[in-house]
């Protein structure tokens, strides 16, 4: 195939994903979908999976490179631009207690999830992606980790499905428990609890708004601080994956200590994500421009999610089995229990 034909075929695949992404944005404007606080990213992966299990075999295979391009390159651009949603001023706004709670939640959820996944005999990548998604920021964290560890599309789709299910459950459960008095927390403490334990940013916004402005403000800021913790997690994951790859080559002289260090690859999109946060902290760009970038970023991430869904068939879900959802449930119980205890007893100490 000539280079021109290759580019044309790739463009067809990209345009297909763009079309699905536009549809995802349109569906998100439907009142029922709005009430669930589903982001276009979530709708996009559903549309992609519907395509994968219906029309996929009727379209030219030459379109596949364009779909893969969206799931890899476009994804990394989207993760970098996600930094425009954050500033370092957000960290100081909520204080040290929120940062400590976020750090404990992220570390224990990821490490504990990987350990439990090993006990359950799960695929390591699915266990890791599910744990990262539960511990940090849902689908966006799964996408970032997927790019760092080079997971298979169906593994990413399974992990996203678990965090969507339990994130949605939390969005409805938290306001009900708060309004009924079961969770006897101050508005600030409830905001910290919500932001540090709920899965998706959209779910944190939905749950916070249902509990009032005082809760919502703290919840969103704490949630975004948790998103920032994606950077060190991705750097650690990239380092570990590279070390394993080096070790897997054997004990030849070319894998000496010094040489192995030079082969460690760093997920630079994570570093650029942090750089963008720093740039955004100076407030150089006008709010209108930042809002436009955030909308563009949401569209790019929706494209990536749709492309990942397009690579995921029902058979691959069956292959993953029930265990990922069991792990996600265990992590959900942990988040609710540990988050509540820390919000009730740790936060007042600061």
Task: Identify the notable features of this structure and list them briefly.
mainly alpha; 350 residues; UPF0324_pro; 18 helices; YeiH family putative sulfate export transporter
General description of the model:
This protein is mainly alpha-helical and 350 residues long. It has one domain. It has 18 helices and no strands. It has helices at residues 3-28, 31-35, 40-52, 64-81, 89-94, 96-120, 124-135, 139-149, 153-180, 187-197, 201-210, 213-228, 230-247, 257-262, 268-281, 287-310, 314-320, 323-346. Helix 1 (3-28) packs across helix 4 (64-81) and helix 1 crosses helix 16 (287-310). The protein is globular and about 60 Å long. It starts with a helix and ends with a helix. The relative contact order is 0.18. It is found in: Cell membrane. It is a multi-pass membrane protein. Belongs to the UPF0324 family.
Query: Regions with pLDDT < 50 over 5+ consecutive residues?
Result: 250-265
Could you give the order of the helices and strands?
A: HHHHHHHHHHHHHHHHHH
Whole-number count of domains: 1
Share of helix among residues?
Answer: over 70%
Overall, the morphology is globular
Major sheet details: none
What Rg, in angstroms, do the CA atoms define?
20 Å
Compute the number of strand runs: 0
Classify the secondary structure makeup into a structural class.
mainly alpha
Strand content: under 5%
